[in-house]
Amino acid sequence: MANRKGSFMDERDERNEPRYIISIAARMIGVETHTLRYYERVGILEPSRSKGRIRLYSERDIELLRRVKMLMEELGVNLAGVEVILRMSEKMLDLQRELSELSSEVKRLREVEK
């Protein structure tokens, strides 16, 4: 997806930009608004809030909600299982980032030794 400034960081920031009110987000995902409120209450996600306290969902929130729906409907995972899967996925991403950073550092140190 191209963006105005063209960098990866800008694209990631754009995906985090709150833009959809709860009724639009619910329609995009194919659930009821009370479902999204429940997911927020149990800690699956925390949408941004406008100054008027209106829930606003980002593209990243929509992706997460679609993943939750897929896990529950297609794979039969219950909400507690979804929470565990999401936490483990986030931990794996953190570990992959850390491994990448450490690999880069090892590579840099090896080049310095030469």
Textual characterization of the structure:
This protein has a 3-stranded antiparallel β-sheet. By secondary structure, it is mostly helical. It has a single domain, classed as Multidrug-efflux Transporter Regulator, Chain: A, Domain 2 (Orthogonal Bundle), CATH 1.10.1660.10. The chain contains 5 helices and 3 strands. The longest helix is centred in the C-terminal third of the chain and has 35 residues, at 79-113. The chain has helices spanning 8-15, 22-29, 33-42, 59-73, 79-113, and strands at residues 20-21, 48-49, 55-57.
Low-confidence parts lasting 5 or more residues at pLDDT below 50? 1-9
Q: Let me know the largest β-sheet.
A: 3 strands, antiparallel
Globally, the shape reads elongated
CATH fold title: Multidrug-efflux Transporter Regulator, Chain: A, Domain 2
Q: Strand content of the residues, in percent?
A: 5-15%
Query: Largest beta sheet: what is the strand line-up?
Result: 1-3-2
Query: Structurally, how many domains make up the residues?
Result: 1
Percent of residues in helical segments? 55-70%
How would you spell out the order of helices and strands?
Answer: HEHHEEHH
Mean pLDDT, all residues: 89
Topology, element by element:
Blueprint: H1 8-15, E1 20-21, H2 22-29, H3 33-42, E2 48-49, E3 55-57, H4 59-73, H5 79-113
Antiparallel strand pairs: 1-3, 2-3
